[in-house]
Design goal:
Layout lengths: L26 H15 L13 H17 L9 E6 L2 E5 L4
Antiparallel strand pairs: 1-2
Helix pairs in contact: 1-2
């Protein structure tokens, strides 16, 4: 299944993030651990959107980011973002130069 990419421009948005180095193929194993770490750093989850997704969905995130990197010119000074709009809709945002 091929991916479809839109180039969008967003206003600056404050965000919380954790960085984890590893093989994109390990996302399904890393994601639950990273969610627990992120949740432990927040004073409350009230008003936050967090979804537990099936491992098959997590497994597609890394390869899709790889496709984005190949399709654009990534800005390495800013983080890539996974924005979970709903339990079945994820926007993968890769900052570009």
């Amino acid at each position: 299944m091929g991916s479809y990419f839109d180039r969008v421009e967003l206003e600056e948005v404050p965000l919380l993030c954790l960085r984890e180095r590893g093989d994109p193929g390990e996302v399904a194993e890393m994601a639950p651990r990273m969610w627990r770490e992120l949740e432990s750093r927040l004073p409350s989850l009230k008003g936050r959107k967090m979804y537990g997704l099936p491992p098959k969905v997590y497994a597609r995130i890394g390869p899709t980011f790889d496709e984005l990197v190949q399709a654009g010119n990534p800005d390495q000074t800013r983080p890539s973002v996974e924005f979970y709009r709903r339990h079945d809709t994820i926007d993968l945002l890769l900052p570009v130069e």
